[in-house]
């Protein structure tokens, strides 16, 4: 009985740690949030040199996330909704920050309604 209680205690104390997973430095993360019809599209090179497309679009609440493990470089383009602003942020320890503001471990950019543009994804070690 005591061993069962001890095992249950170990399992229950480990559960919150699983919910707080932090990606490794080689995972490139781009997130975007806004209202309306916005889009962020990235063309990335994987470790084999193949082009991989990733995209997030408006329509859901909260941050929309696109990721790529061990991206070797690439470019992302964005388009805010015509009447609503868009916020873009990026994180990844191996990647240079292509956006103008750094806050709480993310580099960020606020895009005005109707705004569009692009940014490059570059690894720091290449």
TrEMBL record:
Keywords: Signal. Residues 1-19 form the signal peptide. This is DUF3617 family protein.
């Amino acid at each position: 009985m005591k061993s069962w209680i001890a095992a249950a205690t170990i399992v229950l104390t480990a559960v919150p740690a699983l919910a707080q997973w932090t990606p490794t430095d080689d995972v490139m993360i781009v997130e975007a949030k806004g209202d309306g019809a916005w889009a962020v599209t990235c063309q990335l090179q994987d470790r084999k040199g193949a082009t991989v497309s990733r995209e997030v679009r408006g329509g859901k609440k909260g941050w929309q996330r696109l990721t790529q493990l061990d991206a070797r470089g690439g470019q992302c383009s964005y388009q805010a909704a015509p009447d609503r602003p868009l916020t873009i942020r990026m994180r990844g320890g191996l990647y240079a920050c292509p956006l103008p503001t750094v806050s709480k471990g993310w580099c960020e950019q606020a895009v005005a309604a109707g705004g569009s543009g692009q940014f490059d994804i570059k690894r720091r070690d290449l």
